[in-house]
Amino acid sequence: MPNTHQSCKVLSLIPPMTQLNTPYPSTAYLTGFLRSQGFDAVQEDLALELVLRFFTAAGLADIKAAALVQPEAARSASVNYFLDYFERYERTIEPTIAFLQGRDSTLSHRIASRGFLPEGPRFSALDAYEDDDSGDPLAWAFGALGTHDRARHYATLYLNDLADVLRHAVDERFEFVRYAESLAGSQPTFDPLAKALSAEPTLVDRYLQTLTQQALERHQPDLVLLSVPFPGNVYAAFRMAQCIKANNPSISIVLGGGFVNTELRELSDPRVFDFVDYITLDAGERPVLAVIEHHQHKRSIGRLVRTFIRNDAGQVEFINWAEPDIPFEQVGTPTWDGLPLDRYLSLLDMLNPMHRLWSDGRWNKLTIAHGCYWKKCSFCDVSLDYISRYETASASLLVDRIEQIIAETGQTGFHFVDEAAPPKVLKALAEELIRRNVTISWWGNIRFEKTFTPELAELLADSGCIAMSGGLEVASDRLLKLMQKGVSVEQVAQVTRGFADAGILVHAYLMYGFPTQTVQDTVDALEYVRQLFENGCIQSGFFHRFTCTVHSPVGLDPEAYGISLQPLPPISFAKNDVAFIDPTNVDHDLLGQGLKKAIYNFMHGIGLDEDVRSWFELPKGQLPKPGVSRQKIAKALGFI
Fold this sequence. Notes:
six-stranded parallel sheet
């Protein structure tokens, strides 16, 4: 129930787990917006705090105690190595964390020497790199001057070893970028989460409960906003809510974010509201304002906006008072005030210069438009607000926001996190940055459309653009047309090469297992991708398996894509992914292993001359030859 007093202090929390190099931007946007409306709003990142609390000498001692409880025969190689070399881990953990936070750069020399850190099973990955005459397996990547980056890569492997120990000895659900993901993603009922939440808390849970309670004591909020962008945040968010309800039942809790927006739209299980009071859908500004006004007795419960509650009859009720959203130009500037920007960890998982951007560096995340201007791709959730409602802001206002963020954070790196940044807006933004002499480094996500000419690529590079990512999906003109991507493979080659010529790195999102995709389509797509790497069009890529979602054109009209959906069970909790039957009957899981192996090697410059069929775990005789000329992309680029 709402408190009786009129004030309302709002605490926004990021639950574990999200990336560790920079804060997830949802709380920064909400906090900035609420402050612009005159509210007392604060934020904390408990995802970062949880990892930092474990990665101390005291935290490792707690992990050791949990590991020793395990029967010796049940311990993994990671756990055994940790126990055998515990004193070295205990001695090195805090200096290594300080190094990854940028607070002790001179330690790089000791770490790079390979004599400082204990090297557990994760270091075996170094054996995969080709050695040269120097005896250094990473010389090809870093050369003579790359001591700092080499050290960060070793330190990242060291932390990955410790994450394995946490998972094997403390909580099998733990990962750095997701936590207990399987308990929430597309789970038709709340039962798996309810069972996990009623179980005895693990050491990870107890740490999280302590951090939650400490945040409440620091801020004394009336309202807590839990932002859950991914299935891997949900379990931790509910554990935090459980702690708040047990110790501070007068605090109201709002659950929102990307996971809620895509998966909880048909929520009907009232047990969810044993943990939270409100669940809001889509852009959070308007619903949260309505909740605050209800909390202050300025608005009846019947005038909440896009909000689930449990009503007096004990049933889930969705209330959606008709009220316009806050225009994108009026959502304000995100603020990182309250987030410990000097404590994030700059990791180096992947040596590829483009791929590393997702974990390397403290980027200010900013949206330059709401929604997607294309909103036609058949695999995308085009029916939902975060895609379908397209709004832009003026270049002048965007640069005002950029300057305000730089003044607050001291950081000039920006990651534009749009679904697909509009070329017209990017052009205007680049011109405004140059006109106002604002120096930033930025990267973002786009569609590889012909509007991105070499001239525009040069302009974007002049304004500070260092990298672009975009969806090539299945590199097949037939499937691109079926997907309604609005691009062709040759067009993508020309656009990406234009970026590369301007000095802009390019990452391609790739897909396999799309409806009606044949083995021939897959082999041809990999041949196209090989040629894109070979001709310097792309520097990085990632293959993911197509997933049919209920909100996409494929999920809404499967017959148009030659498939039939499998029946869903009764839904009372999460609904998103839906299995389907494809008459082509291709073993995409087996082919996917080869695609991922190939792309990993291509990113490291390996195997670009080989027959693409060699990457698959099938004899060449069982695979069709590529139906694509080996010079197809070179010809499209005018190289031959």
